[in-house]
Amino acid sequence: MTARNILAPLGTYKFWNELVIMTLGMLVGAAGVYYFLVPSKLIIGSISGLSIVLTELLGNAGVNIGLSTMVFVINAILLVLAWILIGAEFGAKTIYTALILGPLIKFWEAVLPYEKVLAGGASVMDDPWMDLLCFVLMLSISQAILFRINASTGGLDIIAKIVNKYLHLDIGTSVTIAGAMICCTAFTINPFRLVVAGLVGTWINGIAVDYFTATLNRRKRVCMITDRAEEVRKYIIEDLQRGCSIYHLTGGYSGEEKTEVVSLLTQDEFAGLYDFIQKNNIQAFITAGNVSEIYGMWNEKHHRHFGKKK
User: Fold this and answer.
1) Is residue 296 a part of any domain in this protein?
2) Does one domain contain both 178 and 101?
3) Contact, 262 vs 269, CB < 8 A?
4) Most exposed residue of 61, 86, 223, 224, measured as fewest CB within 10 angstroms of its CB?
5) Would you give the DSSP letter of residue 118?
């Protein structure tokens, strides 16, 4: 493989778009860890939680290792497993996200230390259950964003992906199982009630990941029967830059030949299509339903490289 082939992705829109998405996703996750997990000492089923346990245990033994360093070391080991067991694309993206988690935690520490927002309490929200909820929501959003582009936050997500791939479980269930195992290590440094809180948080995390993933992937499957199918097709292809399928059918009542246009659109794109139909007085029978799981990336690959027509 030549150097040109290796560096070719650097010049694509897809590469830089996903790089920005991964960075922003990890920025959200790092904020959740720093502002809600660290001050409250809650050990949620995550590599960040495991890192807090190991840092505390090693500190008691006289070995002082910073949290960001511990996160880096554990993720480095798991990244090798990700590359080997899951795949090169997932592994490469996860290498980037895992390596920037520690520095992003340091970023939040430098920009706004959590001590400044404690307001005299033991944690940011001064309530372990509120800290738990805030962290889980932020982490789940971060995970869902990254899973959507075949990446992850590293750590727990790598273990969950391995469980998902080889045991064929839902990703949310895999996150819960992997997290629960890690969460139980907190018995060494935390009282029972905090460990239980962590287990509850891990369970909520699995549910929230499935919810946010389905929400981000949701599309409208639009089915439209019209005599002006060619106009609709051109609008979908040229203006919305989406694909569509054309079906020829026979009306069951009238016996007339009809044409149906079927496309998967976002909510905004569907609204744009409906406005186009209204403005051009196109007579059409339309049905639309939500689709939360889509397999096959043909449209995604082409859509990213289309240019708007002048």
Assistant:
1) yes
2) yes
3) no
4) 61
5) S
